[in-house]
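Observation: inputs received (chain + zinc ion).
Thought: call the complex predictor directly.
Action: predict_structure
Action Input:
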Amino acid sequence: MVYHLALYMEAGTLASKAAEISWSAGQGLAPGSAVLIFWAMKHLICPACHAVNRADETRLGQAVCGKCAQPLAGIQVLHLDALLLDRLLAKDGLPLLVDFWAPWCGPCKKMAPAFEEAARLLGPGVRLGKVDTQEHQALGARFQVQSIPTLALFRDGREVDRMSGAMPAGDIVAWAKSLLG
Ligand SMILES: [Zn+2]
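Observation:
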């Protein structure tokens, strides 16, 4: 079987063929092919300035924002307000793991280092963020957070699953990986 693939880029009102490639099953594709790089591109929201960027999925750790030059993805835990959370859910190409917590909650504070460790272990391909439900009570209500800490995993803007109660880093990572495949 021969596969044939053509890629069209929009240029004004005209569509022009940007790349074309064909290959036979089992033949393999040349690494670094422009077409493959295009497929690996993801839309990423800059956590610093909220601009939409396009970044190579295979080099997320090095990607910086075209507008403000801040890193687009990393292993830092993000502090989410409604604006950034909504922007990520609407436009960002990475899965998002949210820790709903509050400063008065002992188990939440105890889990904080485990959540940061989970961010390092999961790497730049998964975003980890925290929502302070005391500061952002409307978000806690909107996402129907019944108890804290609650971890919720979002993909393509939709909640995939949630877990309540403090967990060690290894359990957080295993749970996220089981959902993300
Ligand atoms: Zn930016």
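Thought: report the result.
Final Answer: The pocket of zinc ion is lined by residues 46, 48-49, 51, 65, 67-68, 70 (CB under 6 Å). Helices lie at 34-39, 82-91, 106-122, 137-142, 169-180.
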